[in-house]
Amino acid sequence: MRSTINSLTVHTYGNKKKQPIIFIHGFPFDYKMWCNHLEALSENYFCIAYDVRGLGESYVGDGQYTMEFFVDDLYSIMHEMSLNNPILCGMSMGGYIALRAVERDQSRFKALILMDTKSEADNDEGKIKRAAAINEINTNGLNYFLEGFITNCFSPATIKNSPEKFERILERAKKQDPVGVKGCLLAMISRTDTTDYLQKIKIPTLLMVGENDTLTPPEVMKDMAAQIDESEFAPIPHAGHMAPVENPGVVNNIIASFLERRFKK
């Protein structure tokens, strides 16, 4: 089911009476990156996925975004849908949103699932790279930027052996509004560091990362897991930064097993 909440396009799957899971996609994608997970998990959970402001079919506006703005958007969806203690699942930029949302009010969530993301804010080198990306979009166009960026998001093996996965994601990204893409880059540049909060997370937490992820390497997320009490860490084989897309079956099995163990009826 498709709806609009606070200018955001929201899609739901499954029975709304079941435990909700909110999926937050990465940059510069849209909710459809979760298609394999929404279908597979909706049998036992009420799955919600939305397009982050500026991306997909959500409102673009002036592109002046902050991470706080994105968290406010998440909270508005939770409020309008009357979601009680949803499980929060975020990938890459979606993980930044999820971590900050939990830092602001952990009591509103039942569990946290993080994929191919990190808690650290950008250092100076990272900020310069994002600024250069904005300039590249302004100078050479969005498609030129995406060709290089999204290639780095996938493992070389996936691009070689399953090129349709890469091409599908790339072509959808090329439909994004450049203003929205640049706005997301600004939000990531200015985001706060949530590392110090990791040790304060007390809700069940699962961290997953592609074993060939070069953007957020496995050791980065393994270190995050070590700082979160009783968290679980799982590397995803045959995957890079786009683990949910590159190896969805393994990701689904790990999520389902994690939730079953932690929330046995």
Please provide a written account of the structure.
By secondary structure, the protein is α/β, with parallel strands linked by helices. It has one domain: Rossmann fold. 45% of the residues lie in helices and 15% in strands. The protein has an 8-stranded mixed sheet with strand order 1-2-4-3-5-6-7-8, with helices on both faces. β1 (2-5) and β2 form a beta hairpin. α4 (124-140) crosses α5 (142-153). It is globular and about 55 Å long. The two termini are 28 Å apart. The model has no long low-confidence stretch (mean pLDDT 97).
Give the gist of this structure.
It is built from eleven helices and eight strands.
Task: Tally the structural domains.
Answer: 1
Strand content: 15-25%
Percentage of helical residues? 40-55%
Derived from helix and strand composition plus strand pairing, the structural class reads alpha/beta
Elements, N to C (H/E): EEEHEHEHEHHHHHEHEHH
Largest sheet: 8 strands, mixed
CATH topology: Rossmann fold
Oligomer: single chain
